[in-house]
Amino acid sequence: MSITVADLGLGGILSIIITAVLAENYIFSKFLGCCPFLGLSENPSNALGMGCAVTFVMTLSSLITGLINKYILVVFELEYLQTIAFILVIASLVQLIEMFLKKSVPALYSALGIYLPLITTNCAILGAALLCVQNSYDPFVSAIYGFASGVGFTLAIVVFAGVREKVAFADIPKSFKGFPIALVTAGLLAMSFAGFSGITI
Amino acid sequence: MIQILTAFGWFAAIAAVLGLILAVASKIFFVKIDERIEKIKECLPGANCGGCGYVGCEALAAAISRGEAPVNACNACTDENIKKISEVMGLASDIETVRLRAQVMCSGTNDLAKKKYIYGGVSDCVAANRLSGGDKICPNGCIGLGTCVDVCKFDAIKVINGVAAIDYEKCKSCGACVAACPKKLIRLVPANIPYWVGCMSVDKGAVTRGYCDAGCIGCKLCEKKCEAGAIKVTDNVAEIDYTKCTGCGVCESVCPRKIIWSAYKKTKVETAEPAVPAVAESGGEAEKTEA
Q1: Of the partner residues A76, A81, A95, the one whose CB lies closest to the CB of residue B22
Q2: Which of A41, A98, B193, B221 is the most buried (most CB within 10 A)?
Q3: Which domains does chain B have, with CATH numbers?
């Protein structure tokens, strides 16, 4: 039995959103999607672009994988093939979105640039789809969860990029310059986000 | 067995549907792209340095294909690749290109140039320059905090003993450092120039002498001794006209401040005594190329 929007009510939906954005932030608590998190956080505007792209794809992919799961995999008892089915769907979806943007919104396409194809192989997207199934969310609840998780990802990457921008000018020991200090920064941020982990709504 | 067949059947169906959707979408959303862009892009260095004035190599390739940019717009491109681009564009392939390189016009290393204060702020020349023009007394001296190093996409710049030094092999003359230097000390010069003047101080000789042991004092010895008449001292600093310079080397030998540099001297000094000469070498820059 899957959990639907009606089962949850407004309070339940809000609880899902807040939990996904803060307490169970994809990067700082689940450690999913760390590759773009470290690779694209050199400046806040790029980070925001990546965050928006991830949110967009995560929402759509959670919805569509939810539908596929509910109406095909569950009905024909193929749940053990969820992972491969979701990968297939997500890759095609990103490809489709890319083609659509290239034709219809070229400005957004060039702004997203390399980030869009990168999302295809992003573990956070697949993670969101699989977690929705694990929590037995209805496709629409999945979409809400996917959106909230994407917002959480955006929040994390933008905050991190802001900190990294400052750190870039700091006078730090040579051995810490660049990537090492970024990892230390990410660790400290993750600790601060751990403060949300006790929240139950 | 049934289960395997069901799984196979459904996955084949899902894949077929997705494939069909993508195939249809690629027709619907087809965007015509000039295939020359891809070919031109392959010939460009791909560092996206922005030296050509376009956002990146892809943007330049698109501009070349539209005929908006010349085929040799990329300074970092090898002659061979420029020829290839001309072929793609159907142009004559004998376009002359002058190879350039960046040169830092300062010889004032930490041991030669005096400082007015100890800088302890953000490690960035632009920031230091705002604080009374940097720590060196010379208003035209290299600050040496490596803003040019950070912008170089080709890893061609190092700061040695307080003055930026350019690796001529790695320099692709994109001009990023020229734009980044707050003191405007870096110039693009023809790559094969025999001599250059490593100072841009326009202060009077006595003043320059007071704050830097490697500053041009405008004594005009080089100007007088140059048989080709290629050197001219204006605003208390010597400048070589590369179109006239014959490479005789008299200027280098007569310069009392030892700030006229040659690639040979630079190499020789470097091996003998790495720290100071390397700096000077890099720092030692010729005068304006276009003089």
Answers
A1: A95
A2: A41
A3: 35-89 (1.10.15.40), 100-283 (3.30.70.20)
